[in-house]
Amino acid sequence: MRAGSVLIIGSGLLGASLGLRLRLRDIPVYLEDASPLAAALARDLGAGEEPPEDAWEPSLVVVAVPPDVTAQVVSTALDRFPTALVTDVASVKAVVAARLTAHPERARYVGCHPMAGRERSGAIAADADLFEGRPWVICPRPETREEDIVRLRTLALDCGAMPILVEAKAHDRAVALVSHVPQLVSSLLAGTLNDAAATELSLAGQGLRDMTRLAHSDPQLWTAIIACNCAAVAPVLRDVAERTGRLASALEAAAGAARAPGLARAVAAVVAAGGRGVARIPGKHGGAPQRYTEVTVLVPDRPGELGRLFTEVGEIGVNIEDFSLEHSVSQKVGRARLSVAPAAARDLTGALAARQWQAFIEGGEHE
């Protein structure tokens, strides 16, 4: 990617994060956005510069706008820059490609989708490491040139991502399952809390927070995403609804009966199927999931304590594979859950105890 400059159209989370990453590699990056204020914020954060006023031609154009307007912006970029490779990072691919079928320069467009994001949006949430270790999907078509695939592979690698070639419709079916429906289910669950009493919500624990984290996402963006992938989202969502309906029917039957011999089987089947599904999710570095042991450490609710914990775990020489922090109502400590290699868990617990931390192994191993 060191040959030529990059123009990023759209300075939201993905566009600004991409700009930050490429600037770290000394690649010239220019930013455009329909909102002058959004573009100015991204530039102030260091994600790129304002495009030159004189006639110029970038080597690569990356369109980072919502999927409902992606095809239009890509089409305009193909017209503006007659030699540039044009790609996009929208989370839906087939509809974009279909809308560009009649464009005479469509061979210079290759769709991409870095599988990275967060519930916060906008340049203010941008991170140069956002794509680190994440899949970066490239969706070539029959007319795509091999050298353009190589350039986009290089772009992904420059961002620390793992490039993967996937056909557009197959991509859309996959993201419906692993991204779009999880967003909707999280939002549906969080929606049931709107009529809950304050006393009920005061009992909420980390499980509810984990399940509803995605519900903080941008409604306007997700409306555009789902609208562009209806055909793939609908059957997955229907399957979730049918499974939920069958379980609800079993629960209703049990509530009105003196004995409910089928209830335990119905609940166990749902939980067991979920466990098998979780076990299939790839591990931290891809491939088969690895098993970790969870070490729980009580962290005083004071400034600097969490940083001190991380520092001392590093001094002990143990790598933290995953981390979560749980707070309970009226408690003056948080519970930090450190996922570590099983062989290191017992030594870590002992070493932390020697440093006056309250640490213990809880729940055994997990994926």
TrEMBL record:
<dbReference type="InterPro" id="IPR036291">
    <property type="entry name" value="NAD(P)-bd_dom_sf"/>
</dbReference>
<dbReference type="Pfam" id="PF02153">
    <property type="entry name" value="PDH_N"/>
</dbReference>
<dbReference type="GO" id="GO:0006571">
    <property type="term" value="P:tyrosine biosynthetic process"/>
</dbReference>
<dbReference type="GO" id="GO:0008977">
    <property type="term" value="F:prephenate dehydrogenase (NAD+) activity"/>
</dbReference>
<dbReference type="InterPro" id="IPR008927">
    <property type="entry name" value="6-PGluconate_DH-like_C_sf"/>
</dbReference>
<dbReference type="InterPro" id="IPR002912">
    <property type="entry name" value="ACT_dom"/>
</dbReference>
<dbReference type="InterPro" id="IPR003099">
    <property type="entry name" value="Prephen_DH"/>
</dbReference>
<keyword id="KW-0057">Aromatic amino acid biosynthesis</keyword>
<protein>
    <recommendedName>
        <fullName>Prephenate dehydrogenase</fullName>
        <ecNumber>1.3.1.12</ecNumber>
    </recommendedName>
</protein>
<comment type="similarity">
    <text>Belongs to the prephenate/arogenate dehydrogenase family.</text>
</comment>
<keyword id="KW-0560">Oxidoreductase</keyword>
<keyword id="KW-0827">Tyrosine biosynthesis</keyword>
<keyword id="KW-0028">Amino-acid biosynthesis</keyword>
<feature type="domain" description="ACT">
    <location>
        <begin position="294"/>
        <end position="367"/>
    </location>
</feature>
<dbReference type="GO" id="GO:0070403">
    <property type="term" value="F:NAD+ binding"/>
</dbReference>
<comment type="pathway">
    <text>Amino-acid biosynthesis; L-tyrosine biosynthesis; (4-hydroxyphenyl)pyruvate from prephenate (NAD(+) route): step 1/1.</text>
</comment>
<dbReference type="GO" id="GO:0004665">
    <property type="term" value="F:prephenate dehydrogenase (NADP+) activity"/>
</dbReference>
<dbReference type="InterPro" id="IPR050812">
    <property type="entry name" value="Preph/Arog_dehydrog"/>
</dbReference>
<dbReference type="InterPro" id="IPR045865">
    <property type="entry name" value="ACT-like_dom_sf"/>
</dbReference>
<keyword id="KW-0520">NAD</keyword>
<feature type="domain" description="Prephenate/arogenate dehydrogenase">
    <location>
        <begin position="4"/>
        <end position="281"/>
    </location>
</feature>
<dbReference type="InterPro" id="IPR046825">
    <property type="entry name" value="PDH_C"/>
</dbReference>
<dbReference type="Pfam" id="PF20463">
    <property type="entry name" value="PDH_C"/>
</dbReference>
<dbReference type="InterPro" id="IPR046826">
    <property type="entry name" value="PDH_N"/>
</dbReference>
